[in-house]
């Protein structure tokens, strides 16, 4: 008895670590499939345009309708996420969007495809707002940027898989087959999500953390939280730009740059590979550097994000103005690295500058803002500019929002120093 008793307390942290790791693993895989489903349509778009006879502005609606529904449903998902078991929202949302992805492959009209994309947005809102709050309750502040970066690694990897898988299946079989394949993994992961651990809200923020907060009181506090709004503004400007570019870049490379005209699916494979490598390395580097910068100065990770966007803007502009294809892809890769550097630090700043009892709603409101003023309108706007001028012009202009987003995040880093102590209380 005496010999074994000292080991009993040490088993609790080990068990907690395993439970936290399992939840992070499932949430990351779900996020990967999420972005895989989103970007299959980007590389399949030329074939969809041929089948349905739609122009660029109409094609942009396929991105816009999804984002509009997703952003409008996200605050509701966040509101529920602060009050009900979050794993149930995650599981239900994943199952719904996976079924809708499979249904996209059955669409025989443009209207039917639009409807399927709208349902995908509802499903994604069930998990998107609550997943970061779950992770913040599984890991302490000094590890959150890194752990959230692992979660957001799924963005470049999933996007790359969407481009690659969508390009290969569209070229080999049809765009219908690409959607059928994209819906299967989510059905498995949605079922597994029912068995994730449900951490206590504020578990890693100390006994003084506010784990219960009246909604109106929390809403008033969030309205006065300048750091949250500055960070959200920078995030919105970045999302506007990269959302539109992700939707249109494969089409631009085929149409404007005349790359692999006989095998357009190859563009998706190459662009997807660049996205995977640049995004993976950028996200990991951002998580490690963000934690390191946060230890040196309050808001250091957010400052890193601002610098990353300021450097990414000229790279984005050069990518569409360099004639050599290899240099174009190199500029795209550098820009993506600098943008994905921000995934962990930005989201860690958001959850760290609001009370634990209001994090899911804050994330949901952030999702609403970044999409309502970001990639909900950018695919259609780029398509309209392309119809009026050229796709080259439309994409080149998108370097400006990234530049402005960098300045907004630097302001957010300064304001964060005041908001972070209040969030702990």
The beta-strand count equals: 0
Low-confidence sequence ranges? 1-10
Largest sheet, in brief, is: none
CATH architecture of the largest domain: Up-down Bundle
Number of helices: 18
Q: N-to-C SSE series? A: HHHHHHHHHHHHHHHHHH
User: How many domain units?
Assistant: 2
- The CATH superfamily label of the largest domain reads MFS general substrate transporter like domains
| SS-based class | mainly alpha
Query: Residue share in helices?
Result: over 70%
In short:
Residues 23-424 form the Major facilitator superfamily (MFS) profile domain. The chain is mostly helical and 425 residues long.
Question: Describe it for me?
Answer:
This protein is mainly α and 425 residues long. The chain has 2 domains: 16-198, Growth Hormone, Chain: A (Up-down Bundle), CATH 1.20.1250.20; 215-424, MFS general substrate transporter like domains (Growth Hormone, Chain: A, Up-down Bundle). Helix content is 81%, strand content 0%. The chain has 18 helices and no strands. It has helices spanning 7-52, 56-81, 86-104, 110-128, 131-136, 141-152, 154-172, 175-193, 215-223, 226-255, 265-296, 300-319, 325-340, 343-352, 359-375, 378-388, 391-397, 399-424. Helix 1 (7-52) crosses helix 10 and helix 10 (226-255) crosses helix 16 (378-388). Residues 1-10 have low confidence and may be disordered. This is MFS transporter.
